[in-house]
Amino acid sequence: MIARGGGGVDPRVEEADTVIFFLEQLLNGLQYGAMLFMLASGLTLIFGIMGVINLTHGSFYMVGAYSAAVVTAATGSMALGALAALAGAALYGTGIEITVIRRLYGRDHLYQVLATFGLILFSNEAMAMLVGRQPLFMAIPPLLAGSVRLLPGLDYPVIRLAFIAVGALVALGLWLLVNHTRLGMLIRAGADDRQMVDALGVDIGRLYTIVFALGAVLCGIAGVMAAPLLAVEIGMGERILIAGFVVIVVGGVGSVRGALAGALLIGLVDGLGRAYLPQIIQSLLPPSIADTLAAGLVSASIYVIMALVLLVRPLGLFPVRS
Fold first, then answer.
1. CA pair distance 135, 46, nearest whole angstrom
2. Residue 31: how many CB atoms within 10 A of its CB?
3. Residue 199, Cβ neighbours under 10 Å: how many?
């Protein structure tokens, strides 16, 4: 910082630093929101169309992350790692739908929760047998390494910007798919009245398999986005799955638009909360109390937002029209 003659900090420089810090946390929130959207959009498609509560969804994210990390380490190509993540998540998701989920359609949600919870345990142990329990770390490829200057004083990692762009492109592609293609028309029709769609000659079982595979592919993309930034480890899917459910509750169950709005809201609340809540609490309370309280409030911030949204709009921000 630039000091004035009296030894103080120039208020204009301090204000500029505050703005730069805010913008950096805003971008962090957008990047996290983009990753949450990949997970939540698949969740909301599967639950909104099939009526299945799929706790295994986080395991597809884990499979995508492991596939990306392993193939990238073996080949040195993140592009091949990304393709492996999409293929691995899609194949695993399709296999799960054919062997297990297909038997749960129309059953009570308790059966779905118990069955898919069991699949979480199976997925974790299977992955541990294949790659071991030691966390993996995926190197950032040279093309996406380093930072780019967005504003004077704001250098932001290229890889995070790339993931924000990927999230925006996927959101656009998903909107086009759902609203402007024959498959999207069938998906929307199946969500409204699956019996009628089946009676009109559409293979509803095949449609469900396609939708389930699409949800798994979106999880694979989220896994690719997480692998270079986080440790790839057993059980990573359960932690992100909880945030994914918060997103679809906030946005509106069954609404892709709601999943996008909820993901961005939760991502920004999480990013800005981690940056500012500890500072605010430490300025009000003694350090011995503030540190513990700040950690708890940061973790709970997304649930507080969910509660506030549900108080105002019990069906979420963008509920599906009946």
1. 30
2. 24
3. 10
Q: Tens digits of per-residue pLDDT, 234-272?
A: 989 888 888 888 999 999 887 888 889 999 999 998 888
The pLDDT, as a whole number, for residue 8 is 54
Which residues make Cβ contacts (< 8 Å) with residue 42, sequence separation at least 6? Answer: 57, 60, 214, 215, 216, 217, 218, 219
CA distances from 43 to 167, 240, 272 (A): 16, 12, 25
**DSSP H or E run through 193:** none
> Computed over its alpha carbons, how large is the radius of gyration of the chain?
22
Please give the pLDDT value at position 13. 62
Q: How far apart are CA 192 and CA 195, in angstroms?
A: 9
For the segment 146-150, the average pLDDT, to the nearest whole number, is: 87
Higher local confidence (pLDDT), 5 or 295 = 295
Q: What is the largest CA-CA distance in the chain?
A: 82
Task: Give the separation between CA 140 and CA 220, rounded to whole angstroms.
Answer: 17
Could you tell me how far CA 275 lies from the centroid of its own chain? Answer: 20
What is the pTM (predicted TM-score) of this model? 0.86
Distance (Å, whole) CA 87 – CA 63 = 10
